Amino acid sequence: MIKFTLRIPEDLHERLTAQATADRRSLNSELLHLLEVGLNIVSPETPNRPGGDSASPAPLRGNGHSPRP
Fold this sequence. Notes:
It contains 2 helices and no strands. By secondary structure, it is mostly helical. Helix 1 packs across helix 2.
């Protein structure tokens, strides 16, 4: 398992904590659940994935600091 630090606004943290409590999950479990749900919504439309549309443009790669053409 990979561990990393994530900085989020305080109001978002409060919303996530409230949702985790309502769903009877830890904050970590709630975040994992929400990421999985979000990725499942996006992945069918992502190229090179099962059921994906290969005619769609490929996702951007890189570190976000590379110059754009």
